[in-house]
Amino acid sequence: xxxxxxxxxxxxxxxxxxxxxxxxxxxxxxxxxxxxxxxxxxxxxxxxxxxxxxxxxxxxxxxxxxxxxxxxxxxxxxxxxxxxxxxxxxxxxxxxxxxxxxxxxxxxxxxxxxxxxxxxxxxxxxxxxxxxxxxxxxxxxxxxxxxxxxxxxxxxxxxxxxxxxxxxxxxxxxxxxxxxxxxxxxxxxxxxxxxxxxxxxxxxxxxxxxxxxxxxxxxxxxxxxxxxxxxxxxxxxxxxxxxxxxxxxxxxxxxxxxxxxxxxxxxxxxxxxxxxxxxxxxxxxxx
Length: 287
Known about the structure:
It is elongated and about 75 Å long. It is of the alpha/beta class and 287 residues long. The chain contains 14 helices and 9 strands. Helix 3 (28-39) runs antiparallel to helix 5. A 7-stranded mixed β-sheet has the order 5-4-3-6-7-9-8. A two-stranded antiparallel ribbon has the order 1-2. The longest helix has 17 residues, at 99-115.
């Protein structure tokens, strides 16, 4: 066999793994995820059993490894992610769901059950991939779900994710809550993970490079929260929960805004820390 023929031999999955395992931007898990994807394997166990087999599409694998080599997040490379057991399509028009957002929806469902909301409706503002609305839609019986975003491209992704997960969510293209205010619609639950980072230097380089910056950064990091607070009487029903993911340094400013806009004696609120012991969530209640 001559050298030209040798250069065309298809590498095995193991050879590709060995080639890229020391890449600084690709974890071993990322490499295995790519190998599972290009070989159409359903699990790591299936990949493990076929490590020494030839890669089904080594050219595609090499392209995906190259993207990872430059720091592109694995979720964008694969075009998908998992959100608490829900398979989601992901592309560069939407943020990659974070662990904090998973915490937010779990805590919100717990609070809804604790407050004993028998039925009602919820609104997810700045829905992005739709992960929050879809999770709530799948885990709250007798609730009608709505979600909004100003980005038509993001809504296209969210709608596809909702259909794929058989979640009954009505998606609305609007700026913040404008459509709902114009149509005098009120909600029992309002949840939002808006752009709130107001210091660009705190944003990771690969986030700035690959993710939609408008969904992360805002010069006034509490702008969206103040908007919700200003309009709560027109947006919320008599008994409600508002739940937000927030910046870890925003508690003091948000407390001032709460006291400015919420005058009812029945209003209560709490700031909650995330798994990393940073203040990351704000819940506001009216019983």
